[in-house]
Design brief:
- The chain has 197 residues and is mainly alpha-helical.
- It contains six helices and six strands.
- It has a two-stranded antiparallel sheet. Strands 2-3 form a two-stranded antiparallel ribbon. A two-stranded antiparallel sheet has the order 5-6.
- The longest helix is centred in the middle third of the chain and has 18 residues.
Length: 197
C-alpha cells in the first residue's frame, strides 16, 4: 500500500523472511494495482486474490469493496496463521461456505490480549468498522513500547518489568480484561480511528 500500490494477493506464500535480519519482503505483484491517490476510501469491484484470504467484502454480491480494508483483512488471516500455524478458512471450497464461516464469531480466547485486539480489528466482517492501517501501526508501536524491558539505573542488565505496569500511562492492559464485548470495543477504538496522527 506504500506509494499507492495495493498488492491484492497478500498470503503466507507471498511473504519471505530473511532468517538472519528478519527483514520481511512481499513478493508476487502479478495482481497488484497502482493508484497514486490510493487511500482508505478507494473502492474496487474486481474479484482478485486467493479466496481463503479474501475479505467478505470481495465475496459478497457485486463485490464492491474498500481496497485497503480488504488488504488488512488478508493481513489478519496471515497473522492468525503466524500465531497458530494454520489457516482459519483452509477447508472451505465455495464462496458461500467461506462467507458463512467468516461471519461466525471467532474464538480469540486462545490468543494473548494484544493479539486478540489486532485480530478482532483486522478480521472485522464489516469493513466500515475494520481497523485502519494507521491505527494498526500505531497500536503495534504502543504494544512494543509498553512491553519492552526497562533499563535499571546503575546496572548493565535490563529489568524484566514490562512498561505496562501501573507507572505507565501509555497503555492499560488491565482494562482489556478477558476481552469481553465491552472491553474489546474500547480497545478497538484506538486502531479503528481514522485520525490523522
Amino acid at each position: 500500500m506504500q506509494h499507492g500500490v495495493a498488492h491484492r494477493d497478500i498470503k503466507s506464500e507471498n511473504i519471505l523472511i530473511n532468517p538472519d535480519s528478519l527483514q520481511i519482503k512481499l513478493i508476487d505483484y502479478g495482481l497488484a494495482t497502482i493508484d497514486a491517490d490510493l487511500n482508505e476510501e478507494t473502492l474496487d469491484n474486481q474479484f482478485l486474490g486467493t479466496p481463503i484470504y479474501m475479505a467478505p467484502d470481495l465475496l459478497k454480491e457485486f463485490g464492491v469493496h474498500r481496497v485497503i480494508a480488504s488488504e488488512l483483512w488478508c493481513c489478519g488471516v496471515v497473522f492468525w496463521e503466524m500465531l497458530l500455524g494454520e489457516q482459519p478458512y483452509k477447508d472451505l471450497e465455495s464462496k458461500s461456505s467461506l462467507l458463512r464461516r467468516q461471519k461466525k464469531p471467532k474464538d480469540l480466547a486462545q490468543f494473548d490480549v494484544s493479539s486478540q485486539v489486532i485480530l478482532k480489528g483486522l478480521l472485522e466482517v464489516d469493513e466500515d468498522h475494520r481497523s485502519t492501517l494507521k491505527g494498526c501501526i500505531r497500536f503495534i508501536k504502543e504494544v512494543k513500547a509498553a512491553t519492552s524491558p526497562l533499563k535499571v539505573k546503575g546496572s548493565s542488565s535490563k529489568s524484566t518489568r514490562p512498561r505496562h505496569s501501573s507507572r505507565s500511562k501509555s497503555m492499560d492492559f488491565g482494562s482489556f480484561g478477558s476481552m469481553s464485548s465491552s472491553s474489546s470495543s474500547s480497545s478497538m477504538a484506538s486502531i479503528t480511528s481514522t485520525e490523522n496522527n
